[in-house]
Structures
1.
Amino acid sequence: MELGRPNLEEFGATLLEMGRQNPDLLVVTSDSRGSGKLGPFAKALPKQIVEVGIAEQNLVGVSAGLASAGKIVFAVSPACFLTTRSLEQIKNDVAYSDNPVSLIGISAGVSYGALGSTHHSLHDFAALRATNNISIVAPADNFETRAAIYAAAAHPKPIYIRFGKRPMPHLHAPDTQFEIGKAITLAEGTDVTFVATGEPVVQAMQARALLEAQGVSCGVISMHTVKPLDEEALLNAAAHSRVIITVEEHSVFGGLGSACAEVLMQVGADVRFKIVGIPDEYTITGSQVEIFNYYGITPEGLAEQAQALLGSAVAV
């Protein structure tokens, strides 16, 4: 797979392109223009960026006010702080007040690596899935990032989009269609299907290559929108595969896996199912790669878990 740039860089470049076209597009940031790759935007469009300092609650409140006045607003802050410190403002000022703010959580998941658990964002899907009137998106590559930002600017409702920091391979053909709430099937399989979101989609695709070489028919779905979940795509995969494995850079509680389990259980789907993510424990300290390796969010780890589930399915 051809390597692109980090999704955050694609985000910054896309936002600058859009800002030049529309003076009503504003960026509000909490001392995050550097880490959010907003330096070029600030230099080119200084009147379209608002800096509130390290004050995430103010960030969300100011963004809600600007959106209520008709501006197209992107609120940018580290995901770990944006969705905890200012959760009340997200709930009341943005979601419940129906202000169409695009909340951008940067360095999400375990992207901050060695900074430790205080800087990991393993809760954001869970917190916002339980909040009415907000969509949740985690792009897998540069294509999904660019498409998601354009879609967010036109989206009439609040939306949360999270990004990591590593360069991402290109996964999609240029003519791929992107729509909030509609998953993208990257490959179809009759034995196992990985349903992944965000950066772990790459690991799922690489695991597919390993499994296919072993004679296992493997599908991969990029479930870029965690809420609203594309239930049709999930149920179609469950109807045609013996095993479903969800993969996410998030706690195994309350995220993509939980959302998929809720759907599958309520319809009584006859499929083996496993959630791969970060377990409910003190997360180890290390780089994102080291943390992924430890918890099996790797091509080899995913392929091994798929084979184990397929074996148990045969045994039954």
2.
Amino acid sequence: MRRPRRDPGPDINERLLRLSQVRLVGGDGSQLGLMTSREALNLAREAGLDLVMVAEKADPPVCRIVDYGKYKYEKDKRDRDSKKPKQDVKGIKLSPNIAENDLNTQIRKARGFLEDGDKVRVVCRFRQRELAHPQVGRAKIMAVVTALEELGKPDKEPTLSGKEMVIVINPKPPGKQKDGKAEDKQDSGEEV
């Protein structure tokens, strides 16, 4: 059984000797111009650094004199930072005959999800006989929506599909949420 091949990364040092000519960038970012790959490798060795290909699709390919370990670390760090944090959809479940304290517990859970920046999917599940009165489930869902209106906003009205009534609450942007603090503070230098 063969092991999966590791990503070899960019071509460095002797692997670049197959190229006839490269455009060289110095360790400080200065353009050193066009030269043979052998000359570029000799310059990198004199500086005690590596010759790394940074743009192979260019004509001629662009190489840089840099410490390969540091280059790889910074590239991985840029890649990690460029990935956006994914917004999760968390869910809470209700029933039309949920008790008041249980409803408050679910609201507290949803509040925590919205504060973390996640969407909240509120599902009200009906049993067979409860489907005759969907307005009871809608009232429970709307109680959750009104309790969370300072942290999030529903994208649309609750929809009944099958035996479930569903609504998704999107978090408000961080600057738009209201704190419980007073908003009109007086500047210490101003007179009243």
3.
Amino acid sequence: MTMLDLCAYLGLGATGLVALNLLCGMLISLRYSPVRNWPHRRIKQMDLFTLHQWTAYLAVVLTLAHPVVLLWVKEPRFRVVDIVWPLHSPLQPWINMAGAGALYLVVLVLVTSLLRSRLGRPVWRKLHYLVYPAAVLLLLHSVLTDPLLKDGHPDLLDGGKVFVEGCTLVSVVATGVRYWFRGVGFRAVQQRPAGTRAL
């Protein structure tokens, strides 16, 4: 396995974990219950929360490791500054900038989640919504990056790209479902006074 292969696998792993983390977070926010909903079995809610936490930790680790591996790639040559601020990186600087932006937002969301009790729930919740632009930037970077670092033209039908496109589709559909069920979630629908709507 070459360093480019390792870099690609780390990126694919981070993408899959971010998509899974997004799904878990949406289910938690919608008050999903495996007893009331599918699979209609008693599964602890904490299990979903724990999966949400660990996918976040692993996604951050893989997302941090993904660009660092590029320092050992001989051609094209990446410097530390190209990793931290890839605006002048040797190939696809704007796409790499989207990846860096995703990384910084994901780290910010994770750090503020760890400091949730100090920040207070209202502030934490607003900052937690940064996961959506982070996911958009990450998926954009993942789809458009040339994994071979040759000419900047990725093969969108490559196996890795199809995986990323599948993660993108799942994330978009899940976000649409989250928006549709806003304010109600999977709880039983209660009668609201006329003229009010869900937030």
